[in-house]
TrEMBL record:
Residues 103-165, 167-225 form the CBS domain. It comes from Slackia exigua (strain ATCC 700122 / DSM 15923 / CIP 105133 / JCM 11022 / KCTC 5966 / S-7). SMART domains: CBS, IMPDH. It catalyses: IMP + NAD(+) + H2O = XMP + NADH + H(+). This is Inosine-5'-monophosphate dehydrogenase. NAD(+) binds at residues 261-263, 312-314. PROSITE patterns: CBS, IMP_DH_GMP_RED. Belongs to the IMPDH/GMPR family. NCBIfam families: PRK07107.1. It comes from the Bacteria. Signal peptide: none annotated.
C-alpha cells in the first residue's frame, strides 16, 4: 500500500519565529554567520566553512565567474553552472582562481569602430560607465584608449559617431605595468586624481583595470572566502553523465568543491558519481549531492559519501516540476525532515553532514527560517539573478529595469543532464522550468548586507549569536492564513509602493 506522510507539506511562508530572551550581550554586531560547507567529524573543524550562509545556484542565469568573485568577496560561495562544455566551465573556475582582488578584467570592451549608440547599449546592459577601447575590442587586446561618460555629450553627438573620434586616446592616458601592486596602483590613482587605471603588458595589451572604489572595497571585506594561497574560493556543478571528463578538468582548474546538480538526487546515478569520485580522489575532492526531500534520500546520499546534501524539489521560483510531474515537497517540511535525519546520522556516526535548503527563498526572513529549521546554509537562484553581477543582461520592461532569469529545466538552458534518469535519452521530452524576468536590484554587496542585517537582527530576537545556537533555541510556529495577511501592512492605504512590502520580490 502506498505510504502517506501524516502532515501536510508546508512552505516557509507558513512559519514564524517566536522571539526568545535576548540578553544585552546579544546584539547584531556580535553575531557570527560562519557555517560548515562540508562534512566533518565530531570535534573536528570542517575542511571548508562559509563566512555567510549563502551560496548561489548552479544556473546559467546566476553563477558565472563574475558572480563567484562578487559572492566570495562577501563571504559566500558560487557553484559555477555545469550546463556548458567542460572546457568553458573549467575556464570560468580558472578565472575565479586567477582573479586578483581589485584587478578587474573588463567585460565591457569597445573597438575603435564601435558606435556611440552601441556604447550606450553596452552601458545599459552592463551598468559600466568606464570602457576600455582595444584594437580588436576584447579585454586582452592592444589598448587604444578609454571611454567614460566624460567623453561624450549626447546633445552634441550622433549615435553613429565612432569611438575612435571621441575616446580619450592611449597617449593621454596614465597607465601602469601589469605587475603593479594594488597599493602602488592605488597611489597612482590618488596622485593623478583618476577614477580608473589601466594596467598593460609589455606589448601594450590590456591586462586589468584598477578602480578607485575597488581598492577601498577590498579593504572593507573581512569575510572574503580565500584559499590557502589567498585565491577566491569557488564551487562547480557536475552531472551524473560526463563526470569522468568534467571532474578532472574542474579539479585541475582549481575548483574548491563540487556539487552534483540534479533535480532528484535519490538515485543510483548519484551513487555512481560519488563512487567514481571516491575511487579516483579519495576524500581530497569535496562533493555535495542532491536534491532530496526526506530522511531516506538523505541517508542514501550520506551512506554513499556526500560531503553536503541539498534539499528541495519543486520549490524554485522558475520551477514547474510539481506541475509537470507531480513530485516534490513543501520546502519547510523537507528541511525539517532532513535536518532531523542529519542529526540522527550525527548521533549514529559522529559525522556532521551539512544540509542546504535550495530554492524557494522569496523574502529575506525565509533565510532565517531555513537556518532555524536546521539548514546549515541556503542556495539561492532568483535572489542573485537580480544583481549587477549575474550573467544576464539588464533590460527595460514596461519602463522598469529587469534581469532575465531562466530555469535549468527550461528549453533555453537545455540542461537535459539535470533531469536525466539514465537510458540513452539525450534531450528533454518536456520542460521543468520557465524563462522569466526578475526586477533588477543593484549590487550584490548592498543587497547581501541588507539581507544579512535582517537575519542577524532576528537571530538576536531569538537570543542566538551563531547559527548552531539559533538551531538550538529557535521556537517556530505555524501561522494560519489570516495571520499571514496580518503579517504585511494591512488596513492602511499606502502612500506609495513601500520598500517594506515584499521588498525582495520587487
Ligand atoms: P530560486 O532561488 O527559488 O530561484 O530557486 C533556485 C533553484 O531552483 C536552483 O538552485 C535549482 O535547485 C532549482 N532549479 C533551477 N532551474 C530549475 C528548473 O528549470 N526547474 C526546476 N527547478 C530548477
Amino acid at each position: 500500500m502506498a505510504f502517506y506522510f501524516d502532515e501536510p507539506a508546508r512552505t516557509f511562508n507558513e512559519y514564524l519565529l517566536v522571539p526568545g530572551y535576548s540578553s544585552s550581550e546579544c546584539i547584531p554586531e556580535k553575531v557570527s554567520l560562519k557555517t560548515p560547507l562540508v562534512k566533518h567529524k565530531k570535534g573536528e573543524e570542517p575542511a571548508i566553512s562559509l563566512n555567510i550562509p549563502m551560496v548561489s545556484a548552479i544556473m546559467q542565469a546566476v553563477s558565472d565567474d563574475k558572480m563567484a568573485i562578487a559572492l566570495a568577496t562577501q563571504g559566500g560561495l558560487s557553484f559555477i553552472y555545469g550546463s556548458q562544455t567542460v572546457e568553458d566551465e573549467a575556464a570560468m573556475v580558472a578565472r575565479v582562481k586567477s582573479h586578483k582582488a581589485g584587478f578587474v578584467v573588463s567585460d565591457a570592451n569597445l573597438s575603435p569602430e564601435t558606435t556611440l549608440g552601441e556604447v550606450l547599449e553596452l552601458r545599459e546592459a552592463t551598468g559600466h560607465s568606464t570602457m576600455p577601447v582595444t584594437e580588436d575590442g576584447t579585454a586582452a587586446g592592444k589598448l587604444l584608449g578609454i571611454v567614460t561618460e566624460r567623453d561624450y555629450r549626447l546633445s552634441r553627438m550622433g549615435l553613429e559617431e565612432k569611438v575612435a573620434t571621441f575616446m580619450t586616446p592611449r597617449e593621454k592616458l596614465i597607465v601602469a605595468p601589469a605587475d603593479t601592486s594594488l597599493r602602488e596602483a592605488n597611489d597612482i590613482i590618488w596622485d593623478h586624481k583618476l577614477n580608473s587605471l589601466p594596467l598593460v603588458n609589455a606589448d601594450d595589451s590590456l591586462a586589468y583595470l584598477v578602480f578607485r572604489k575597488d581598492y577601498d572595497s577590498h579593504k572593507e571585506n573581512p569575510l572574503e572566502m580565500l584559499d590557502a594561497e589567498k585565491r577566491y574560493m569557488v564551487g562547480a556543478g557536475i552531472n551524473t553523465r560526463d563526470y569522468a571528463e568534467r571532474v578532472p578538468a574542474l579539479v585541475e582548474a582549481g575548483a574548491d568543491v563540487l556539487c552534483i546538480d540534479s533535480s532528484e538526487g535519490y538515485s543510483d546515478w548519484q551513487r555512481f558519481t560519488l563512487e567514481w569520485i571516491r575511487e579516483h580522489y579519495g576524500n581530497t575532492v569535496k562533493v555535495g549531492a542532491g536534491n532530496v526531500v526526506d530522511r531516506e534520500g538523505f541517508r542514501f546520499l550520506a551512506k554513499h559519501g556526500a560531503d553536503f546534501i541539498k534539499i528541495g524539489i519543486g520549490g524554485g521560483s522558475i520551477c514547474i516540476t510539481r506541475e509537470q510531474k507531480g513530485i516534490g515537497r513543501g520546502q519547510a517540511t523537507a528541511v525539517i525532515d532532513v535536518a532531523r535525519a542529519r542529526d540522527e546520522w550525527f548521533e549514529e556516526t559522529g559525522e556532521y553532514i551539512p544540509i542546504v535548503s535550495d530554492g524557494g527563498i522569496v523574502y529575506d526572513h525565509h533565510i532565517t527560517l531555513a537556518l532555524a529549521m536546521g539548514s546549515d546554509y541556503v542556495m539561492l537562484g532568483r535572489y542573485f539573478a537580480r544583481f549587477d553581477e549575474s550573467p544576464s543582461n539588464r533590460v527595460t520592461v514596461n519602463g522598469s529595469y529587469m534581469k532575465e532569469y531562466w530555469g535549468e529545466g527550461s528549453s533555453r538552458a537545455r540542461n537535459w543532464q539535470r533531469y536525466d534518469l539514465g537510458g540513452t535519452k539525450k534531450k528533454m521530452a518536456f520542460e521543468e522550468g520557465v524563462d522569466s524576468y526578475v526586477p533588477y536590484a543593484g549590487s550584490l554587496k548592498d543587497n547581501v548586507d541588507t539581507t544579512l542585517s535582517k537575519v542577524k537582527s532576528t537571530m538576536c530576537n531569538c537570543g542566538a549569536l551563531s547559527i548552531p545556537e539559533l538551531q538550538d533555541k529557535a521556537k517556530l510556529t505555524v501561522v494560519s492564513s489570516t495571520s499571514i495577511t496580518e503579517g504585511g501592512a494591512h488596513d492602511v492605504m499606502l502612500k506609495d509602493k513601500s520598500p517594506y512590502v515584499g521588498n525582495t520580490i520587487g
